[in-house]
Design brief:
5% strand; 203 residues
Length: 203
């Protein structure tokens, strides 16, 4: 670490801004901004622990303008998506139900796919979310929507307490990409802008 000078740190960041991303094209500004923030934080820690005398990234400035958040649905668009997801869920489509849970309960994709039957508590009125990031992410959420409660209870019928709510139809496969694909399909069917699952948490 001691070989990294301020000049070399600036070059490393400059090279990072030109790096090709996994989806093609150079990295977005928000991505290399975050990388620079991590580097500054790590080397600040190294200075505090007296591994280094100075932080070589301290004066490196981020450049490029990050996009202002993810695209959000309007209230009318969200209502269209909700009604479509509800109709599909009532017809037994697990994708519609999974999107509905994410939309109405504000969960992360991994949290939705990580739900087990035992997480549907208090006769279907409470959803116990284990969380995927920190201990604070564990929470008990009241399910205010009666139709959603009934759909979840029907989905869990016949499953053992430790089974995943949505894994029974997936052969045990649970990947967040599945919810991305499901939401993209529902947005197209509803005739609304295509958004990512994470944007639903702000609705």
């Amino acid at each position: 670490m001691g070989d990294i000078t301020p000049e070399y740190a600036a070059k490393l960041y400059q090279d990072e801004t030109k790096r090709q991303g996994r989806r093609g094209g150079v990295l977005r500004a928000c991505t290399h901004h975050k990388t620079l923030s991590f580097a500054k934080g790590f080397f600040s820690w190294a200075v505090e622990r007296k591994y280094l005398r100075e932080n070589p990234f301290a004066k490196v400035k981020a450049f490029g303008k990050a996009q202002a958040g993810k695209q959000q649905l309007t209230e009318d668009e969200a209502r269209k998506l909700t009604m479509l997801a509800m109709d599909l869920a009532q017809d037994g489509d697990w994708r519609g139900l999974a999107v509905l849970v994410q939309l109405l309960m504000g969960l992360r994709s991994a949290e939705v796919l990580g739900l087990r039957v035992r997480n549907l508590d208090a006769k279907g009125t409470v959803l116990v979310v284990e969380g995927t990031k920190t201990e604070n992410a564990r929470r008990r959420l009241h399910i205010a929507s009666k139709p959603l409660r009934e759909l979840l209870l029907r989905q869990c019928a016949g499953l053992s307490p430790d089974q995943f709510i949505f894994a029974s139809t997936l052969g045990g496969q649970r990947h967040t990409k599945m919810l991305h694909q499901a939401l993209r399909r529902l947005c197209q069917l509803a005739g609304i802008p295509t958004v990512c699952p994470h944007s639903l948490r702000g609705l």
